[in-house]
Amino acid sequence: MKRYVISALCLGLLSTTAAKADTTTGSQSFGMSAVQAAVGKYGQAIGSDVRGMNPLGSLGGNVGYKNSGSGNVGAFNSGSGNVGAFNGNSNTSTTSGNGNIGAFNGNGNTGEYDGNGNIGAGNGNFNGGSFNGNGNVGAFNGNFNGRGNR
Fold first, then answer.
1. Which residue of 30, 71, 72, 91 is surrounded by the most CB atoms within 10 Å?
2. Residue 24: what pLDDT?
3. How would residue 61 be classed by pLDDT, with cut points 50, 70 and 90?
4. 150, 94, 102, 91: which is closest to 126 by C-alpha?
């Protein structure tokens, strides 16, 4: 009886591994622009849904701990539409540090439209100029760009 159970487990493991090995379809159909657009829409949807909850009106439409701005979910988020922790803080422009998912995304930017729409950790931080550090997936992407005028 034990042999049959072990054989079944091995077959299941092999089929799972084979399914994960084929990554061509995902990489072909999911370009970077699609990721950026999806993250931006998701962040804005989260923000509008949270702002629409009446019990949270006194909190500016935030859910979690020590959030500022509007429509943030998690802890220590600023800006708007951020989900996670320590997103969208210490930016000089309201167009920066919005719509991020994860931790430590979109912080410390001095230009406009910096550090938006990132998924993961440590993305889109400490950028100067405009349109830097946006739409990154993973960790430690889009940081320290466009420092020029410093």
1. 72
2. 46
3. confident
4. 91
Query: How many CA atoms, within 13 angstroms, populate the side-chain half-sphere of residue 105?
Result: 33
Of 130, 81, 136, 86, the residue nearest 109 (C-alpha): 130
pLDDT at 146: 84
8 Å CB contact between 72 and 87: yes
List of residues 6+ apart from 40 with CB closer than 8 A = 99, 116, 117, 135
Tell the burial category of 116 from Cβ atoms under 10 Å away from its Cβ (0-12, 13-18, 19+). buried
Place of tokens 């931080």: 125
- Amino acid letter at 76? F
List, in sequence order, the alpha helices (H) in 22-109: 24-29, 32-51
